[in-house]
Design brief:
Blueprint: E1 5-14, E2 24-26, E3 29-31, H1 45-58, H2 63-67, H3 79-92, E4 95-105, H4 115-126, E5 130-135, H5 141-144, E6 148-159
Helix pairs in contact: 1-3, 3-4
């Protein structure tokens, strides 16, 4: 029986300081006139969370493992490029991608008018369905204060036929000593 595997990814970026403005890339899209996010790459926390969820589901590391700040070749890299590379690595590890779902938390930009465009761009990068939703935190926390954006993603992957993925085998149960 082929069992699917799920993973969770999260990414958080602060808005870039006004004295070092950056373009805003979010959900694979450029947002003209919006304050950008700080980060080693383009700061696209939606694409980054999606990639991290894929790594989590397949058990092959995380965003830092593959695209960390110690990798200068990824400085300024597009989140769409990172998601495409994450999907390639997951498939190379013997998995197919079922889907990825991302929710980001921010006061801006207004996402609904560009939702379909974002989902299309990210789905093309992953070569699998990617859905994106947005919410606010009702003024609470750093996202509510407008200091940055956070995103959480889930991913479903499953082993490709002919690629056996070993199941985790639990160790012996530890029993509490009797008093």
């Amino acid at each position: 029986m082929i069992l699917p595997r799920t993973g969770i990814g999260m990414d958080v970026h602060a808005f870039a300081p006004e004295d070092d403005p950056q373009p805003l890339w979010l959900g694979g899209l450029f947002w003209e006139g919006e304050q950008g996010l700080s980060g080693h790459s383009d700061g696209d926390c939606v694409a980054h969370a999606a990639a991290d969820a894929l790594f989590s589901a397949s058990g092959i590391g995380d965003l830092g493992t593959h695209f960390g700040t110690d990798r200068p070749e990824y400085a300024g890299a597009s989140g769409v490029k990172l998601l495409a590379e994450a999907a390639r690595l997951v498939r190379a590890a013997g998995f197919e991608i079922g889907n990825v779902a991302v929710q980001f938390v921010a006061n801006r930009p207004k996402f609904a008018p560009r939702r379909e465009e974002s989902q299309r761009v990210l789905s093309e990068a992953a070569n699998a369905p990617v859905t994106v939703t947005a919410t606010t935190s009702d003024g609470l926390g750093f996202t509510g204060r407008g200091e940055g954006i956070s995103a959480v993603a889930t991913a479903l992957v499953y082993p490709m036929p002919g690629h056996e993925v070993p199941a985790a085998v639990p160790g012996p149960a530890k029993r509490a000593p009797h008093a």
